[in-house]
Amino acid sequence: MKKLFNLLTIALFFSFSGITTAQTDLGQTVPIEEGVKTGVLENGLTYYIKHNEEPKNRASFYIIQNVGALLEKENQNGLAHFLEHMAFNGTKNFEGKGILNTLERHGVAFGRNINAYTAYNQTVYNMSNVPSEPEGLVDTCLLILHDWSDGLLLTDEEIDMERGVIREEWRTRRNSGFRLRRQWFPVVFEESMWAERDIIGDTTVIKTHDPETLRNFYHDWYRTDLQAIAIVGDIDANEVEKQVKELFSSIKAVTNPIERPVFEIPDHEETRFVVATDEEATQSGKNIYIRHKNNDGREKSYKEHRGGYIRSLYNAMTSQRIRELLEKGEPPFISGYTRIGGLVRGYDAYSIGVTANDGEEEKALEAILTETERIKRHGFTPGELERAKKDLLSRIENQYKQRDKINNDTYCRQFASHYLTGSPINGIEDYYHFAVETMPTITLDELFERAQKWISDKNRSIVITGPENSEHLTEQKALDIFTKVENMEIAPYEDTAMGTTFINHDLKGSKVINTRRLEEFDAVEWTLENNATVVFRHADYQKDQVLFNAFSKGGSSIWDDEYVPSLSLATNFVSAYGLGDYDATTLNKMLSGINARVQPHLGTLTEELNGSSAPKDFETLMQLVYLSFEKPRFDKETHDALMSRYLGVVKNLQNEPRKIREDSLGLIWNNYHPRIRVLDTEFLEDISFDAIRDIYTDRFQDAEDFTFLIVGNIDEETAKTMSEKYIGSLTSTSRNETWIDRKIEAPEGKTEKIIPIKLTTPKTHVNIRYENDSHYNQKNQLMLNVLRGILDLRYTETVREEEGGSYGVSVNSNFSQYPSGKATLMMSFDCEPQRANELKAIIYREIDKIAENGPTADDFQKTIKNILKDREQHREHNPFWMEALYNYYFRGINTVDKENYELILENMTQNEIHKFTKTFIADANLMDVLFVPDEQENPGE
After folding, report:
1. Distance between CA atoms of residues 120 and 198, nearest Å
2. Could you tell me if 601 and 608 are in contact, meaning their C-beta atoms sit under 8 angstroms apart?
3. What angle do CA 412, 413, 419 make, to 5 degrees?
4. Using the 8-state DSSP alphabet, how is residue 677 labeled?
5. pLDDT at 528 over 70
6. 272-409+418-487 and 750-937: same fold?
């Protein structure tokens, strides 16, 4: 491996050196990617159009409104977001839910493919992965964009119906993080509109605003000079451009438009300070924001483009330093960062943040400030910069090689950023070549100078957040820590030596003794002399990717109940220990510029090793696989450091509402089985370093018991040679085992519970689960998926739209094959406490209607279309084939065969769903759990 590693270093050196004489003019504006059709119509509307075939026969349509919550008047607080909702509730050419109904009939799902978001400065709508082949559908989507630009109906009736949905979105989003932001935003953004607005807005305005107030906001701000449309996909770009010009030029520009303000944040010399607390906060955080004005809104030059690489390198190096600090000894904090990045439009921030262990706020703040000061005084080392450059260039090279897999939505989002902030859209080819050209010219001195500029005391704010009843740093104490760090002696960072080879001994290997062709997968199966089974499929859907999976039956079920805590987190800890002769820090350094990773996973029924690499780094991937089996590392110091951080995270989680819900549901649904435990301090204290070592070495051994799957863009001979050398060198012990059925079952019959929990914002969380024994096969699996999709449509129409009772009902399903076939259907949502029983009744009503009469033809066809559309897209990606091989070897089902998927769906009938649903719910185990506000707390809005 030493030779390979050195060759890579030499290759990178020459690739850098060979182009350092390139003369890109750094003052030149970064050009727009060739192939992007863009322009501005006479009415001011901007358009971006690009032909792209990822995925094939699909297109995405965006409209970008340069309009957000900052533009609202006081009596409009929340109406920018309200208006976003109304765009789906009636337009000139699509009354009522016409947009959704039209698109859903082509398999385009609301929420997943059709959506929008509102921010402080923009509102963006999208229709994604729309089939581009059906005649007239592209025209329909252009017409929808046209209506979103200038055709919202905004009827009184639809406005009133939507009030409830937005109130429930307000309720759902009112969590601890939101409430903490509302305390510190007014300090960090003092005297600016960011201190005043929160996007969803004032509930009084939502409930009572006059519809005319919403229409005024719409007419003032939804106008062509503040709009751009982006259309990317498998389309005729020239033809679409003609259509855009014809269709959108008919929209008249607003006469005497209100000037669109640019929102500034006043400078301040003094350091601002704020403590924000909340009853539901789980961790104590200290964050410093040092604000810097940026060039958002202007076209960017290559000099600024180069600055983006500098920021990426800087942040990568600071992140690595913090990671090293946390991997050994007694970590001074749970997590931390020191980096440069965007803050809000028009402003960047140098951000310093740390999450402290309980009672250690001073220690944590001093530690993160010390690391920041170390960088400011001494900068970085040559080794750090070299590794960061290798990593960054490797990632960019990966994107470049897979440029045909850049999807439509990625392009649309880039176009949105270009329109709103002036971000470059020069394309991956130019991006890559400029990176190769400019990377060698970035110096340590340059990074040092940037740190001096970024780490300043001007426009600095200190934000302390945490639990309400904890003691927190005072302003004076925080400032004293700044002074202490500024005056202390701080040594430069010492860069530790790296190893030169991952494996330091010869491997015996073993040859292929049997070959079997899998024609249905266009794959090959090899049996090695050590009886390991290796399956390879060449797939170049992602040109710069190889996927790896190894699995064996058994999993955590093999070990007794007393080991559950160690079993649950074993692979998390082992991943942090390192591999072979190297700890995690050294290993990460050795992997700089190498795109190869592996990750162990211990499931209930299987143990697995998952990995990926670039084709050029496939041998490194195989070396890591070998080490994961034969030379795992067990590092007690790293173990103790990680345990300290886990304990710090868990300590304050016990009052967090979401964790209470998840813990309670897990215990109830699994009938309080002894193997189902709550993650708390006691759980962590029951984890043993020795047990983790014994568990891992027991589970990840015996190559003969594993099946090794390789899918990706390498040739068959390479895959065979590397498999013989590395997988062929793994030990085989000829054990043949499977899992143990630990009889973890749902409680029989109907289980109803009402659980009071302490909440700051009153809401009830409704959970309903059905489970029934069912034979696992592809048809049953797909019928459960179809039922889930139909219910998603029904609950969106009833609970959300008709009743305005919830922001949305989450519908999920699962079909287990082992240890026994069980089908599970889960529905959950948040709502106003007083309406919980009323809305819960709708959940039962809709599934009962399907059981009694079957689904409507419309809902059935929409769901079938959506599943088939997704299936078609997934086939053109490497993960599809990895999953198909896994299913074949683990489940015994060939999911690639159209008879096991497409033909089942195409021939499925409404009556089959009717019968399936009726049988499924007839004698299913049912869990009905409500989490309600603890009345003793008397919380209020």
Report:
1. 8
2. yes
3. 90
4. -
5. yes
6. yes
For the residues 441-469, what does the mean pLDDT come to?
96
Question: Please, which residues bridge with residue 349 across strands?
Answer: 291, 341
Task: Look up the CATH superfamily of 512-729.
Answer: Metalloenzyme, LuxS/M16 peptidase-like (3.30.830.10)
**Cβ contact 147:91 at 8 Å:** yes
Output phi, psi for 338, to 5 deg. Answer: -145, 115
Whether this model's pTM surpasses 0.85 = yes
Residue 880: per-residue pLDDT? 97
| Tens digit of each residue's pLDDT (9 = 90 or more) over 257-314 | 999 999 999 999 999 999 999 999 999 999 999 999 999 999 999 999 999 999 999 9
CATH number of 37-248: 3.30.830.10
d(CA 607, CA 594): 26
Q: Is it the case that residue 425 has pLDDT exceeding 60?
A: yes
Task: Return the higher-pLDDT residue of 859 and 12.
Answer: 859
What are the pLDDT digits (tens) for 313-345? 999 999 999 999 999 888 999 999 999 999 999
Residue 546's Cβ-count burial label (10 Å; 0-12, 13-18, 19+) is: buried
Determine the Cα–Cα distance for residues 621 and 54; give it in Å rounded to an integer: 27
Domain boundaries, the chain: 37-248, 272-409+418-487, 512-729, 750-937
What is the rounded CA–CA span in Å between residue 547 and residue 712? 6
- The residues facing 512 across adjacent strands are 528
Tell me which residue of 449, 434, 454 sits closest to 392, measured CA to CA. 434
Which DSSP string do the residues of 863-886 spell out, in sequence order? Answer: HHHHHHHHHHHHTTSHHHHHHHHH
Contacts for 634 with CB less than 8 Å, ≥ 6 apart: 574, 577, 689, 692, 693, 696
Residue 71's SS3 state is helix
How far apart (Å, rounded) are the C-alpha atoms in residues 143 and 896?
Answer: 37
CATH number (3.30.830.10, 3.10.28.10, 3.20.20.120, 3.40.50.300) of 272-409+418-487 reads 3.30.830.10
Per-residue pLDDT tens digits for 639-694: 999 999 999 999 878 889 999 999 999 999 999 999 999 999 999 999 999 999 99
Give the separation between CA 832 and CA 851, rounded to whole angstroms: 28
Taking each helix axis as running N to C, give the angle between helix 857-874 and helix 910-922, from 0 to 180 degrees, rounded to the nearest 10. Answer: 90
Handedness of CA 136, 142, 146, 149 (dihedral sign): positive
Q: What's the pLDDT score for residue 935? A: 73
Burial 234-252 (b: 16+ CB within 10 A, else e): bbebeebbebbeeebeebe
Query: With contact defined as beta carbons under 8 Å apart, do 60 and 53 qualify?
Result: no
Do 742 and 673 form a contact (C-beta atoms < 8 A)? yes
Tokens matching residue 388: 């960061």
Q: Which residues face 272 on adjacent strands?
A: 461
Task: Give the model's pLDDT for residue 9.
Answer: 37
Looking at domain 750-937, its CATH class is alpha beta
For 188-246, the three-class secondary structure string (H helix, E strand, C coil) is HCCCCHHHCCCCCCCHHHHHHCCHHHHHHHHHHHCCHHHEEEEEEECCCHHHHHHHHHH
10, pLDDT greater than 70: no
pLDDT band (50, 70, 90) for residue 23: confident
Q: Please report which residue ranges of 360-496 form alpha helices under DSSP H.
A: 361-378, 382-401, 408-421, 427-438, 444-454, 475-487
Phi, psi of 187 (to 5 degrees): -90, -50
DSSP 598-636: EEEEE-SSEEEEEEEE-GGGHHHHHHHHHHHHH-B---H
Q: Give me the pLDDT at residue 655, please.
A: 80
Residue-wise pLDDT tens digits, 201-233? 999 999 999 999 999 999 999 999 999 999 999
How far is the C-alpha of 111 from the C-alpha of 27, rounded, in Å?
Answer: 42
